[in-house]
Amino acid sequence: MIEAKGHAAELTSAELLAMYELMVTGRLLETRLHTMYRGGRLPGAVYPGVGQEAAQVGFVSALEPDDIFGPTHRDLTAQLTKGVTLEEAMLNFYAKATGPSKGRDGNTHFGVLDKGALMVVSPLPDAYPVAMGAALAFKQRGERRVALADCGEGSTATGTWHEAVNMAAVLRLPIVFTIQNNQYAYSTPNDGEFNLAYSGHRADGYGIPGVVVDGNDLLECYSAAREAVDRARNGEGPTLIEAVTFRHFGHAGHDPADYVKPDEREAWMAQDPIPRFEEFLGTRGLLDEARRQALYTRVEDKIRATIDWAQTQPDPVPADVLTDLFAPSISFGSAPGEPEGEPITMLDAINQALDEEMGRDERVFILGEDVGSFGGAFKVTEGLFAKYGPNRVIDTPIAESAIIGGAVGAALMGQRPVAELQYADFIYPGLDQLFTEAAKYLWKAGRSVPMVVRGPSGAGLRAGPYHSISPEGMLSHHPGIKVVVPSTPTAAKGLLIAAIRDPNPVVFLEHKKLYRSVKEAVPAGDYELPLGRARLVRAGDDVTIVTWGAMVLTSMEAAERLAVDGISVEILDLQTIVPLDWEAVFTSVRKTSRLVVVQEDVPFASVASEVAARVAAEAFWDLDGPILRVTPPHTHIPYAAILEDAFVPQVADVVAAVNTLAAL
Q: Does residue 149 register a pLDDT over 90?
């Protein structure tokens, strides 16, 4: 028998009935959607949470309207509890133009940020780091707001889950992590996912409270969540709650769940949360059969009418496929003036940009490994911790997924995070958060993500295959990410300032060989270099070299040698790979009629490939010879000096390519 204990005893009759109606709405809606899908009358997919209504309604009911909820794909009832409407949900199921994801994703894969519900994506539990980042923003600003992130028990086996919970625990963030243990991760039972009696017992490993509750008892779920939310709101850090429940249907609409044994199913069905709560309401005099039937009829009518209405709403139009990739950029600074003062390194210029932006805008903060008092692996952030403190220069655990995902969540809450990678090579564990969350939020959920991921890239320092990559080709392949590669101190400062102010996710690649090897005086004061604008390094008439990063210096040296032989080379430094300044490329090629593309990244499916292909397609009749690419071989970056020099394009390689074209 359900009892109202703890915080649940404080609930009013109206609140109890509202929670009951949400449970019934979720049950009837998801049962109908499951039936429609099985009958071929609903597109896409369904991931029913039928049987889990007590946990979903109980957990989310503990939040305030301004709090944030990070759902998973089986949390439709929880989203309704957070304020998402039936109309919004059904518009998304039918992929309508006015739905939360504008027809770009289906079923429960949506978020309504205005209601405090983060975007749902397929990889699990991706909402954990994003919700953690939202909680970080709340703590930074001293707001009494809380985030709650939910997942299934299978998700607790992932590195994403661990990184988010561990970082939240270390930073004592105002967040509650919940788990709905429905006994099966798709078809895998609990003993195939973790070697614990309950996944909630994992909390001991993070030094935070862990609570296991009856997931079929609405009031117990609510009371535990309310206590955890209050702890978080009062600055006492995270709590982990596991609700032990049962999924009545299979993982998705196509799954018959025949892996569940009949006696097991029968035992769980006897614990169905809705009849149990109805019995409780009856003992309170709040529910009888007539009122129950009236509620069911009213909810069923509402669901039926909403489904019928949603199907008649406008579909997206083909032109919509090209919109919402990037939010419009707004310039806040002036163009650079004349250089002043003593020459500085590119490292110093980046440090200046960070310092000036942090001083100008209190929303700007840095997070990453060893960025605090140590000053970063390459000392780029040196001095900033002492000046701005641990709330804005945040040392994190080794956790690239949580670092980048946390930046996403903080950016969604209005902050301007700058996440540092110790090496660009270490971005791989964070690519899920970068590509799945940051790159798609505006496109799918209509909310821009103003964040920067920056760090050292490139070869030339004999650092071997794990500390030397140039990942711009891989990054530019994925839509929704701006990619910047400066080659001078002036460019590094102006482009980084522009990147921090840009309303979109930007990856800022700093070639480590250039950190201290190039010096120049930079313009004074606040200036920006617009993203997407190439720099004419050297004017010429015979051959165009398109390049970026450290290869700019290599190309300049080659041009000097070629000039001795009377060959005039024009060098265009792209600076920004995405967006790429195609107008500058075409203008130069039409002037010289010959093109060499020089890059440090490997050749296959690369930026050089795209530049060559597009110039060949759109400026073919302006060319007097083939387009040549100077790139490394398609292999890994070796350690030995003689091997690395054989890998990285050298001045002689560029000279040879230009001579080949000039001779035609």
A: yes
